[in-house]
Amino acid sequence: MKTKLLLFCFILFCAIVQAQIKTISGTVSDNNGTPLPGVNIVVKGTSNGTQSNIDGQYSLSASIGQTLVFTYLGFVPQEVRVTETSNSINVTMVEDAAQLEEVVVVGYGTTTKRKLTDAISSVDAEDIKEVPNANFQNALVGKLSGVQIQQTNGKAEGSVNFTIRGISSINGTQEPLFVVDGVPVLNNQESGTGAPTNPLINLNANNIESIEILKDASSAAIYGSRGTNGVVIITTKKGKSGKLKVNFNSSYGRSEATNKREFLNAEQYVELFTESRLNSGVAQTSIDNQLDALATDSNGFTNDWRNAEVDTNWTDLALVKGSILENNVSVSGGDENSTFYMSLGSNLTEGIVRGNTLERYNFRINADRSVSEKFKAGANLRIGKSEIDRIASDNLFVTPLQAIAQVPISSPFNQDGTINSNTLYPNFLLEDKFAFYKTNIWNFGGSAFAQYNILPSLSFRSELGYEHFNQLEEEFRGPETDFQGADNGQASNRTIINDFYTSNNFLTFDTSINNSHNINLIGGMSYEYSQRKASLITGIDFANPLITTLAGAATIDGGTSTATQRNLVSFFTRFSYDYQGKYLLKASMRADGSSRFGPNNRYGYFPAASIGWVLSRESFLENSETLSNLKLRASYGQTGNQPLGNFDYVNSVSIGAYGGIPSLTLAGAGDPELKWEITTQYDIGLEFGLFKNRIFGEIDYYVKDTEDLLLDAAIPGTIGIDGSSIFTNIGRVENKGIEFSLTSRNIRSKHFNWSTNFNISHNKNEVISLSDGQEENIIGDQIIRVGESLASFYLVEFAGVDPANGDALYFLNTELPDGSLDRNTTNNFNDAEQVVLGSPYPDIITGLTNTLNYKNLDLSFTFQGQFGASIYNSAGRFQENGFVFEDNPSISQLDRWQQPGDITNVPQLRSDGSNLGGQSSRYLQDSDFVRLRNITLGYNFVDLGPFDSLRVYATGLNLLTFTDYDGYDPEATRDDAGTLNRGTEFYSAPPAKTYTIGINVQF
After folding, report:
1. 470 burial class (0-12, 13-18, 19+ CB within 10 angstroms)?
2. Largest CA distance in the chain
3. Which family does it belong to (predicted)?
4. pLDDT tens digits for range 706-723
5. Which of 129, 242, 315, 784 is disulfide-compatible with 47, CB 3.0–4.6 A?
6. What is the CA angle 638-641-644, rounded to 5?
7. What is the DSSP letter of 986?
8. CA neighbor of 346 nearest in space, from 204, 482, 475, 517
């Protein structure tokens, strides 16, 4: 009887519980009645959830009394309680004007777009996904106003120039500060060759949730001496409470060079080679003998060059088809108290330059835990490994790109199939087969935080970070290669170990008085310590070329090691206030103490302030049907910059031997009064939104003034120091510009949506002063001159060709008594004066992105543009040389002057050098271009059983480039491009054009 009674009670209880659970369905739409697909609907406090379908419809189970939470990007979250009558719940989402409540990450905290008084640009994961590239920076190109991002060249590991609001330094760092999850990360260039690698290559774009670019001093000054070049704050993905989510993305692409230059074929080469020597009085017999020598391989066979028996396209041997295979998988989830995100990724890139590959693996785990209502903690761990097969820098003969100088009548191979070593310059195929240059990079790091809420309005947060960077460069050159330094080969090992420690500790006070006066105050300190160790060992004479380690060397002929360290201690505070969200005020101060300066100038102080006025919340505008948002803001602040060297403020010594006895020699002069570069920046901005934010954007005007530039100043050699300069503070440079960005939601309907984002920026860079009345500092074919941009091109001006005799002409440009320049021409290069003829920095950069969705089909594409800069081909005098050298020239030489009356810009070909000249504007061109940066077409499958979503897509990168530049590419620059050499190319590899297909699965 008791058993039956218990069974009856259990059945009754289940029936009651079952009666409490309801299936809720409905439709989610915007305030125009348009259904919203992809809205997240979750039963609050549980992992039970779903998403609305393409028609905005949803269905899920919930109990009476529970709450449904509806969230969708760009709309205000809504909560609806389930009642006994709630069988159908239809929800109208209210659009969040211009995403004004969107959270924006700033230094040591967060704010909202509505309360922001700074110039900050943001992108999120959606903006950078599915861009096939090993460098995450390249995914940002064209998407941010005031930000120029340029990969040095087309090498797989190529360095990236990341410039925010112009160049403000010459010898200080020019890169922005990168902060990942609140902790600064290493961004040191550690390549042992002239070809730099990307220091952030192990950072996987698939793990990034959002990126904020702090552009003005008000936003960046909280980072003090690290903020002059802007700050890039990267927030990685974190888990969310709810069901376990798995995301898998796999893509494969094929690559090729964006452009290949054309050079003479065998028949054209013989014709022009012969013509150039006849013009210089060389006998035909001698010419034939020279051509015989060029056509003879290393086994002594001479091909029939008269009938073009051999016609080698060396460019096709150097630039090859490449590929990219990328796989990423992530798992995330959690409950109300704990969340986690874990990912594993790989990238295998076969470069477009023969012998250049990249293999990269990444692991990351992020975890957060709310221990109690007052205490929470979290940590992340990341591991990255890259192995790069590298090629020689572009200033070495053995690099593949210099193969274009080889003559087409030379065969790359002997008749027996072996590699021909008897070529005009070293045959890079020998390098490809019998030598290697590998770089292995390990990054291990992580950070942890603990936050305790002392009071409801007061919290303390402590952050610790550590990063270990280990780079091993292994080089081996077999006896078959050129320049190996020994008859039987040579090898070297170079190791760099860098340990970087950071600590941030700060209090945050956040309160509201009468819901009108909102106050946020932070104060704390930061500490950084970096230790770097490097060692190099070399060996020669290998008995067996199969043994490529140094253990196989008969002689260890060199070795060295170095160690250095630096630290930075900082104190900072920031005060933010707003009244009813209408009147905004912020002020900050940071003090940095750096070991890179002497005791007298060790500390730098960096104040900043900004104000904002939200006019659209005033009574005279808040009911406007047209204007949905209008905010005026202004800011002022100072940031700093440090020298790259750790001990530039003290005299340096070199260690050596004198008569077999160890000795010290004074090697360099230090400046004990060395001090910070200081950048003062003013910014005024206007943010606006129209028609319920169907159109919104912002415009900024800024002035960025940097003084006490860190530069090398000449010193007399009579003071007994082995060096001609001292690193000190001289000069001042100014950047000023205007930025504009606009987003429009052109069409929003049930099945079709189309939005457009456009940005355009103008920047003018100008040197204001140098030291002691100095007006200029000439460095090769570039100049730092008052009134001009930094590193302007300083060249003899080419004036064309004399139609009477084919002479190359140059403008004299000597100064006349009235101050004007003599525009008469001369055929003597040495009689002409150098003048400023262009800048490597663009006046205008722009980007245009369109995103279209039709039902489950989506299309997005980005165009980027650059205008006003020049590019100088410093290899031009070898590629268009009139056969002074025997290099194979470009096809432009077919238009050479041949007889009186010819009108052309290509002088008569003369092998005696009388018509060659030096570095002139003949090789300087505009680098204006418009490029289809990326385009993606995708299709989303829904309702596929176990999958939440399945998406297939195709992506193209750098598909089209519109430019008048006749070199490889208007963005390709030489390996050693810094402030100097930016905008200069020298056998520089063009970027890759890539076609990719991929699949993304979530379940």
Report:
1. middle
2. 126
3. Belongs to the TonB-dependent receptor family.
4. 998 887 766 665 555 555
5. 242
6. 180
7. S
8. 204
Percent of the chain with pLDDT strictly greater than 90: 61
What the block records as the tokens of 665 is 């020699």
Place of tokens 């005007």: 701
**In the β-sheet with 825-826, what is the strand arrangement from edge to edge?**
798-801, 808-811, 825-826
So what's the pLDDT on residue 30?
78
Question: Is a pLDDT exceeding 90 seen at residue 77?
Answer: no
- The CA distance from 576 to 997, in Å, is 47
Contacts for 198-201: CB closer than 8 Å, 24+ residues apart: 198/134, 198/135, 198/137, 198/157, 198/158, 198/159, 198/160, 199/159, 200/135, 200/136, 200/137, 200/160, 201/134, 201/135, 201/157, 201/358, 201/360, 201/386, 201/441
Give the residue-averaged pLDDT of 224-240. 90
C-alpha angle 915/919/921, rounded to 5°? 95
Tokens representing residue 390 in the block: 């590298």
Domain encompassing residue 775: 136-257+320-797+832-874+919-1002
Residue 803 near residue 901, CB atoms below 8 Å: yes
Q: Say which amino acid occupies 20.
A: Q
In a domain, 868, yes or no: yes
Pairing mode, strands 695-707 and 732-748: antiparallel
Exposed e or buried b per residue across 352-391, where buried means at least 16 C-beta atoms within 10 angstroms of its C-beta: bbbbbbbbbbbbbbbbbebeeeeebebbbebbbbbebbbb
User: If you search the block for the tokens 């290509």, which residue do you land on?
Assistant: 906
DSSP 758-813: EEEEEEEEEEEE-GGG--EEEETTEEEETTS-TTEEEEEPEEEE-TTT--EEEE--
Q: Report the DSSP pairing between strands 183-184 and 752-769.
A: unpaired
Identify whether residues 516 and 590 lie together within a single domain.
Answer: yes
Per-residue CA distances from 692 to 97, 112, 698 (Å):
7, 19, 16
Q: Does 79 share its domain with 171?
A: no
Whether 145 and 80 share a structural domain: no
| Residue that has been written with the tokens 């396209």 in this structure | 313
862 burial via Cβ count (<10 Å: 0-12, 13-18, 19+):
buried
* Residue 615 lies inside a defined structural domain of this protein: yes
Q: Tell me what pLDDT residue 178 has.
A: 92
Q: Decide if 451 contacts 461 (C-beta within 8 A).
A: yes
Q: Which residues contact 229 (CB under 8 A, 6 or more apart)?
A: 163, 164, 168, 169, 173, 174, 175, 176, 177, 641
Is residue 767 a contact partner of residue 196, using CB atoms and an 8 Å limit? Answer: no
Q: Residue 799 CB: number of other CB atoms within 10 A? A: 22
Here the CATH number for the domain that contains residue 791 is 2.40.170.20
Closest CA to 869 of 990, 978, 760, 971: 971
pTM above 0.85, yes or no: yes
User: What are 444's strand-pairing partners?
Assistant: 383, 468
